[in-house]
Design a protein that fits this description.
The protein has helices spanning 6-18, 30-41, 78-94, 128-143, 155-162, 184-197, 255-261, 282-285, 331-344, 400-415, 434-447, 452-462, 466-475, 491-500, 506-513, 516-519, 525-539, 543-561, 565-576; strands at 21-26, 46-49, 65-66, 100-109, 152-153, 171-181, 201-203, 206-214, 217-225, 239-249, 270-281, 291-294, 303-308, 311-315, 319-320, 356-365, 380-384, 390-394. It is of the alpha+beta class and 577 residues long. Strands 3, 4, 5, 6, 11, 12, 13, 14, 15 and 16 form a 10-stranded mixed β-sheet that branches. Strands 1, 2, 7, 8, 9, 10, 17 and 18 form an 8-stranded mixed β-sheet that branches. It is globular. It starts with 5 loop residues before the first helix and ends with a helix. The structure holds flavin-adenine dinucleotide (FAD).
Length: 577
């Protein structure tokens, strides 16, 4: 197991402060992670700093689809859809444990006038089926040899077989098409682990507070550790200076702030757009391994119902926001999603059925004024300030690799190097030897009496590196214990992520290394004591530090629950019985 721990982080910070880097990346979401990997794979000496935890910004709050985006076709965003479909194909090959094909059912109702955001509305909806068929043919064709599977019209009966929870009245026909899905947070972590394996120095909880200038050019940053040195709430750590020949601002919705901090008038205008999801039980919707597109909302959008891990995700909203603060679902957003869901499902879903919600901000680019967020392009832009600061924003999770490649091409051009593209066929951490590892996992896991769903979860989350988790259970059998009775997470994972994924706080483990914060109805609070005990052993926390971590996580969990705090209290009462 390659170590990525509290100790390696300290060493990385010391090394970053000691000597000039070739490339310093600010921001540890998927974009920054991708740039760190691409630059390290091209042989640059790379550092990356993230002010919170990796993926704690937008990159843990997406719909988790790796897709071209069928709804961008009516907007004629063909280059973006094509790029995303090619990247989808590459990700399926480079990270098969984390990215997998997913079938989608698209129902067509008699009442539909603008399904999938079609701008035209044929009279009485006549010919809509043919238009959707044509659109999906274009989608398949754009994917070319990277396609996952060809779409087909499946008719009314087959649509209801695939999605039995849909209201049958008025259902005319349906389509089956293919995209892919991932675990956005774990994908970011896998990219970071791969970058570290190529020599990149990584530090979470390190906030860039200023820029170091030399001869009018950005020559580095000043940063402050945001986690106390003792890891548990003691004195804040020192400020440090990190020098680098190329500094990349990959801070997503905060990109403009960083440009301003460097003294530049922002060249990129980021328009944050808030998106909220509901998390429901799959059983409630009778959802199988097939996603469903609710084809039309009152504001001309679509809503996905996606089976994801143990749960069903329903989303998303898309509303303009002034600032990217308070990524928590509001009453209005919950009502909007429930309202549209209940138009299409047989059994009404209520607030009490909601396991969790989560929200995030899309870093959309303000390219045209006055457009609704859902009409703003998902494309990205790279700008270079007068001071040499490279800023990238926009794009999608799906296109992170090609965005990163474009940034490092700029750096190669500055260096007078011929651009090479090593990440096109670079397996991410856990991808190599996956088939053999799965077989070994099954055999050794059965000997340890681990349930099939636990083994499947380990294979999907860690790929071939799941064998490291198994080894921990073989050494200490009590680590086979589940963290929550109805979810496949086990105690050994807590040990592993402290040693190999830079988990430093209770929230890191419950919200991002695992997803108890959204899959568990108590938002992971029922597991918090036990996880904190394991982390205390790994990270050397005192009793006081452990108590502080639990208190901080409790605040986080209730803040995230927002208007549904009562659901969390009810789940805690059930767990205590
Ligand atoms: P972020 O993940 O936000 O990373 C930026 C990081 O910079 C943050 O972690 C932040 O803490 C850090 N930072 C900020 N300031 C500083 C500083 N001063 N010092 C150090 N670090 C700093 N895309 C898809 O392809 N498929 C989808 O299904 C999909 N669904 C989506 C649904 C929603 C609701 C949303 C909001 C987005 C969705 N997206 C999807 C888009 C995708 O999630 C984003 O494009 C992507 O995650 C952006 O990543 P990023 O790294 O640019 O930004």
């Amino acid at each position: 197991m390659a170590e990525l721990s509290w100790h390696t982080r300290r060493a990385a910070l010391t090394q970053m402060a000691a000597g000039p880097l070739d490339v310093l990346v600010i921001g540890g979401g998927i974009t920054g992670a991708g740039i760190a990997l691409d630059a390290a794979a091209r042989g640059y000496r790379v550092g990356l700093v993230e002010r919170g935890d990796f993926a704690s910004g937008t990159s843990s709050r997406s719909t988790k689809l790796v897709h071209g985006g069928i709804r961008y076709l009516p907007q004629l965003d063909v280059p973006l859809v094509r790029e995303a479909l090619i990247e989808r194909g590459r990700l399926l090959r480079n990270a098969p444990h984390l990215v997998r094909p997913l079938p989608f059912v698209l129902p067509l109702y008699a009442s539909s006038r603008h399904p999938v955001g079609l701008p035209v509305a044929p009279p009485f909806g006549i010919g809509l089926g043919a238009i959707l068929d044509l659109g999906l043919t274009v989608y398949d064709t754009l994917a070319g040899r990277h396609n996952v599977g060809r779409h087909r019209r499946i008719g009314r009966e087959h649509t209801l077989e695939r999605a039995p929870f849909l209201v049958p009245d008025g259902l005319k026909t349906g389509f089956l098409y293919y995209d892919a899905q991932t675990d956005d947070t774990r994908l970011t972590l896998a990219v970071l682990r791969t970058a570290a394996a190529h020599g990149a120095l990584l530090a979470n909880y390190c906030d860039v507070r200023g820029f170091v200038q030399k001869d009018g050019r950005v020559a580095g940053v000043t940063a402050r550790e945001t986690l106390p040195r003792d890891g548990g709430g003691g004195a804040a750590a020192d400020e440090l200076a990190i020098r680098a020949r190329h500094v990349v601002n990959a801070t997503g919705v905060w990109a403009e702030d960083l440009e301003r901090l460097a003294g530049e008038t922002p060249a990129l205008r980021v328009a944050p757009s808030k998106g909220t999801h509901l998390v429901l039980s799959k059983a409630l919707l009778d959802l199988d391994e097939c996603a469903v597109v609710l084809p039309e909302t009152s504001d001309g959008r679509i809503i996905f119902i996606v089976p994801w891990r143990s749960r069903a995700l329903v989303g998303t909203t898309d509303t303009a926001a002034e600032t990217p603060d308070g990524a928590v679902a509001t009453d209005d957003e919950i009502d909007y999603l429930l309202g549209h869901l209940n138009r299409y499902v047989r059994r009404p879903v209520s607030r009490a059925d909601i396991i969790a919600t989560y929200s995030g901000y899309r870093p959309l680019l303000r390219l045209g004024s006055g457009r609704a967020p859902s009409r703003l392009s998902r494309t990205h832009a790279i700008v270079e300030g007068h001071d040499g600061l490279l800023t990238i924003a926009g794009g999608k999770l799906t296109t992170y690799r090609s965005m990163a490649q474009a940034v490092v091409d700029r750096i190669d051009a500055r260096e007078g190097r011929r651009a090479a593209h090593p990440t096109q066929r670079l397996p991410l951490a856990g991808a190599s030897g996956l088939a053999e590892a799965r077989a070994t996992l099954r055999a050794r896991g059965a000997a340890l009496h681990l349930a099939p769903n636990v083994l499947e979860h380990l294979a999907r989350a860690y790929g071939a590196e799941a064998l490291d988790v198994l080894l921990l259970v073989e050494e200490t059998p009590v680590l086979a214990e589940r963290l929550a009775p109805d979810l496949p997470y086990i105690a050994a994972e807590v040990v592993r992520v402290c040693r190999a994924e830079l988990a430093l706080t209770l929230e890191d483990v419950l919200a991002r290394r695992t997803h108890l914060a959204i899959e568990d109805a108590s938002r992971g609070l029922a597991a918090a004591e036990g996880v904190a005990r394991l982390m205390a052993e790994e990270l050397g926390w005192s009793e006081t530090q452990r108590a502080r971590q639990i208190a901080a996580y409790t605040d986080y969990a209730f803040a995230q629950a927002g208007p549904l705090a009562e659901n969390v209290r009810a789940a805690l009462a059930v767990a205590a019985r």
